[in-house]
Design goal:
This protein has 376 residues and is mainly α. The protein folds into two domains: 285 residues, Fic-like fold, CATH 1.10.3290.10; 82 residues, Arc Repressor Mutant, subunit A, CATH 1.10.10. The protein has 15 helices and five strands. A hairpin with a 4-residue loop joins strand 1 and strand 2. Helix 13 crosses helix 14. The relative contact order is 0.13. The model has no long low-confidence stretch (mean pLDDT 89).
């Protein structure tokens, strides 16, 4: 089917409402829009540059953690959480009680992403993997009693307070297994090849339209993008996160997704998606460049610590994953006594690497501000 001729689906009368039944996507596709083809080429080039760049950075895994935290924060903000990157890097005991639920949602996202990347070593991107990941995503937060790890067995809706005033009603629950089976086959269809970025763009739209879970569909749909890119070798490490682009363009994100089903306009959604891939790849490359420059500067500073250098280097590596620290947890992480850590923190303060945030004499928190600024 030509992308320009795509028919997204139709409304189906249920008992006292109409649900939207999307057409299946595991078919032969033909890319027939020159503007889309140009954007695809540009996005492919930038994604390739990002992938190459991330492989050139020594110890890149130190920095991936912050990328995942930023993605989890932005993806959750799209769904209405109010937490930010400064709060997310804090330990739970330092989070205000009214913000702990939002904090846990982001931590679940990070855990779900990390576990799914590990699971990709033995599982393909599949309904099984998505269910396993969803179960982690929903543990102990809003929606924990809405069948975590299972496709829904009842009707859900988007917008409004009920089916009567909903802005969109996904397919009936009886259609979900077949539609998700078709989506899985599409992701692995090698007989009718589709450019990978076009494929995951279509798959993301279809997933959000099916809305297969009772809760957490937006976050799962965005997780799916990264998992697909890693699984198919377009990314060596999970370094492309589109949630920041989607959050900054939230209304366009929703409008373009909805326009597919309302106007059969798949091409406009894919153009928006590819612009997101291109811009996010460029931003991620710049982030890595900023990290490399900061790392060089900071490592030059700690050389001045002489005999303390080896411990200081370990401390710095810890800070790349946990840029807000306290003395007690640092002592435990480095397996040294608290007095040694306090002296080391003092050295890092004098070198301008760490900043004390609380103004207290006890229970002080220190921040690696220059590093956090890269992700703010």
């Amino acid at each position: 089917m030509k992308l320009s001729n795509f028919k997204a689906g139709q409304k189906i009368q249920q008992f006292n409402y109409k649900s939207y039944e999307p057409n299946k996507i595991n078919i032969s596709w033909e890319l027939d829009d020159p503007g889309l083809a140009l954007l695809l080429s540009q996005a492919d080039i930038k994604l390739g540059e990002l992938n190459a760049y991330s492989q050139l950075i020594p110890d890149v895994d130190f920095f991936i953690k912050m990328h995942v935290l930023k993605e989890g924060t932005q993806s959750s903000r799209i769904e209405g959480t109010q937490t930010n990157i400064d709060e997310v890097v804090q330990k739970e005991e330092f989070i205000q009680p009214e913000k702990k639920n939002d904090w846990r949602e982001v931590q679940n996202y990070v855990q779900a992403m990390n576990q799914a990347i590990i699971d990709l070593e033995k599982l393909p991107v599949s309904n099984r993997l998505m269910k396993q990941t969803h179960k982690i995503l929903m543990q102990g937060v809003r929606g924990t009693n809405k069948l975590p790890g299972e496709f829904r067995k009842s009707q859900n809706w988007i917008g409004g307070s009920s089916l009567v005033d909903a802005s969109f009603i996904p397919p009936h629950q009886d259609s979900v297994p077949e539609l998700m089976g078709d989506l899985e086959k599409f992701l692995h269809n090698e007989i009718n090849p589709v450019p990978p970025l076009i494929k995951i763009g279509i798959a993301h739209y279809q997933f959000e339209t099916i809305h297969p879970f009772l809760d957490g569909n937006g976050r799962m749909g965005r997780l799916l993008i990264t998992l697909f890119l890693v699984s198919n070798g377009l990314l060596h490490k999970p370094t492309l996160y589109l949630s920041d682009f989607f959050e900054r363009n939230r209304m366009l994100y929703y409008d373009n997704l909805r326009r597919v089903s309302s106007h059969n306009d798949l091409i406009q959604w894919l153009k928006f998606f590819l612009v997101g891939v291109k811009e996010t790849s460029e931003n991620s490359i710049q982030t890595f460049k900023d990290i490399i420059a900061l790392r060089s500067n900071v490592e030059h500073k700690i050389v001045m610590l002489g005999k303390k250098y080896n411990l200081a280097k370990l401390f710095l590596e810890l800070l790349y994953g946990e840029p807000k620290i306290d003395a007690q947890s640092t002592a435990e992480a480095l397996n040294v006594n608290i007095s040694t850590v306090l002296r080391l923190i003092g050295d890092f303060e004098k070198l301008g690497i760490l900043k004390e945030l609380t103004g207290y004499k006890r229970n002080r928190i220190f921040s690696f501000e220059d590093y956090l600024n890269i992700f703010r």
